[in-house]
Amino acid sequence: MTEKLYYEDAYIKEFSANIISINECERGYDTVLDRTAFFPEEGGQSADGGKISGIEVLDVYEEDSVVHHILKSRPEISHVQCELDFNTRFEKMQLHTAEHILCGIIHRLFGLENVGFHLGTDEVTFDISGVLTREELDRVEDLANEAVFANIRVDVSFPTSEEAEKISYRSKLDLKENIRLVKIGEVDTCACCAPHVAYTGEIGMIKILDFAKHKGGLRIIMSAGRRAVADYRIKYANLRRISALLSEPQHTTADALEKYVADTEALRTAHKQIKIKLAEVKAKGISESEGNALYLLDGFGYDELRAFANIAVKSVGGILLALSDCGEGYSYVIASEKENLSVLIKEANAKLSGRGGGRPNMVQGSFNASLSEIASYFDTDIITL
Ligand SMILES: [Zn+2]
């Protein structure tokens, strides 16, 4: 059984220990110490990083009360100096304690349970057993930050099972003994084995970022402390740019952007209508021809090519091809008042690496072939409009 230094003192950054065993494994060297301050991956929280005897710690896990450290290489000595990546550990302490506060308040106000927690390198989420509104979560967030401002002491205790029976606390597991209770004033009491900050003031800001329905309850994305500051910095820089681009005050950018998107959509629709009108005008201007005719109309999409073909087909004795460069080959709309195109297009697609189809008198799709190959196949000249 490893002596868990993090149980008593979450602020240990460096410590010395004796190596009990080293076993080579797939990921590196599985090393057991007589005591450790490295918190293993547990309860949704990722393992601590750092160095043991100058060797990188890749992972930490616990099995039967023994903490195993996966090291990148084999330590040469048996009495080792150990160093935690304490910056990351402290961020986790801030986030983890913030999660206790949020869940404690949600439990007290709404009677909901915490049914999941994930504290990774990027996102921090926790799941609750029921659904809350944005307004209710705002209230929870306000109360959580008040608990930070009050700088409440975080007490850790190990009650006996008789003592624990008399205490009301949150717990994900039905533990009967070896209970480690983490009490944050009147805000929360929870059975937990992870490291926490000593006073809530160390957490800094607590922020609920987002939430979504999840398995009959909610999955809440949160941030706190140093990570919340980093998150705010990125989001503020984005908001400042958006505000400058829109020439709008920062607090009204969403309304301004909504209007901008609607205006852009209206312009796009108007532009489309103009292009269709242009296609129709171009179609009315073409000369009568007896055989097949190929028209290249660059910058036109299928809607415009169809509008063109609908009118132009009346001036063409054979098959009318309306083409537009689509990067990889040519988009086509092919029309004819005489030929059955449904049959004809299958052969043309096979010969010109094409795909598409449609009705007997009009088909659309694309050919992955050169313009001259297409013109040659249909035995026609190329007319660029
Ligand atoms: Zn905890």
Describe, in plain words, how this protein is organized in 3D.
β2 and β3 form a beta hairpin. The longest helix has 32 residues, at 253-284. It is built from 9 helices and 21 strands. The mean pLDDT is 95. The N and C termini lie far apart (83 Å). The strands form 5 sheets. It has a 6-stranded antiparallel barrel. It folds into 3 domains: 3-84, Elongation Factor Tu (Ef-tu), domain 3, CATH 2.40.30.130; 89-237, 2-Layer Sandwich (Threonyl-tRNA Synthetase, Chain A, domain 2); 274-384, Diaminopimelate Epimerase, Chain A, domain 1 (Roll), CATH 3.10.310. α2 crosses α3 and α6 (253-284) packs parallel to α7 (302-312). By secondary structure, it is α+β, with helices and mostly antiparallel strands. It binds zinc ion. Zinc ion binds next to α2.
Looking across the biggest beta sheet, what order are the strands in?
A: 2-3-7-6-5-8
Architecture of the largest domain, according to CATH?
A: 2-Layer Sandwich
Overall 3D geometry? elongated
Q: Count the domains.
A: 3
Number of helices: 9
Structural class computed from helices and strand pairing: alpha+beta
How does the major sheet shape up? Answer: 6 strands, antiparallel, barrel
CATH topology of the largest domain: Threonyl-tRNA Synthetase, Chain A, domain 2
| Counted beta strands | 21
Distance between the termini: 83 Å
How much of the sequence lies in strands comes to 25-35%
Rg over alpha carbons: 34 Å
- Compute the average pLDDT: 95
CATH H-level homologous superfamily name of the largest domain = Threonyl-trna Synthetase, Chain A, domain 2
| Multimeric status of the protein | single chain
Order of helices and strands: EHEEEEEEEHEEHEHEEEEHHEHEEHEEHE
For the record, the CATH class of the largest domain is: Alpha Beta
Ligands present: zinc ion
Helical content stands at: 25-40%
Low-confidence stretches: none
